[in-house]
Amino acid sequence: MFIYKLDSMKKIFSLLLIIGTIHNNVAQEKNITEAKLKDSILIKVASNYIKLTKQMFPDFKKAGYIEVYVQTRVRSKHGKGSKIIYKIKDVGTAVDKDSKNYSYPNYYTFIDDKLIVIHNDITNHIIQKKFTKNSKRKFRKILDPYLHKKEVMIFWKDKNGKLIKDKNWRPQYKGSSYYGIILEVENKTFSIKRATHYD
User: CA torsion sign, 56 to 57 to 62 to 65?
Assistant: First the structure.
């Protein structure tokens, strides 16, 4: 009977420790850091995606960057190693001072002449992203050269008959209208398919 109680106490203690760790990770602010990609297949596919998008959509030569979502990492069915699923797409979306934490990536890097932002969906579904103000400010500066330059846009008149000026307006990015591609990497082999709204 005593052994049973002691074992139960250990389980409760372990559970509390796990909950406490998750709570600390949620509350703790992180930095958006530059990553050094080691997945040679991801690098090659992203590079080819950049070249192809530039050929098909000339606006991508002037603006735009690549978003990579690490969606799944599971043990391979064929023995050793693991299967990783990435979603890759080109975007031209600005991240502003008032943007929520989920708008910021976990990591960033560069391939060829393009910025690559990386969202780790594996951990983001468990631990809510929260970044320091300084880190977000630094990332916005890194992102800015890959966006269309700000212009002054005059809109319709307000209720008082005055014209409204937006000094922070950016031209719309005219890149790929698709949802990008899905890259599945398993034991140094890979497959690519077009992404859908549900991916």
Answer: negative
Count of Cβ atoms closer than 10 Å to residue 99 Cβ: 13
pLDDT single digits (tens) 76-125: 565 666 789 999 999 999 999 889 999 999 999 999 999 999 999 888 76
Q: What angle do CA 102, 113, 118 make, to 5 degrees?
A: 20
Query: 69, 67, 46, 51: which is closest to 143 by C-alpha?
Result: 67
Instruction: Report the candidate in 197, 181, 198, 178 with the shortest Cα–Cα distance to residue 46.
Output: 181
Counting every residue, how long is the chain?
199
* Global confidence as pTM: 0.78
Contacting residues for 85 by C-beta, under 8 A, at least 6 apart: 70, 71, 72, 73, 182, 183, 184, 185
Q: What are phi and psi of 40, to 5 degrees?
A: -65, -30
Give the residue extent of every domain in the chain. Answer: 33-194
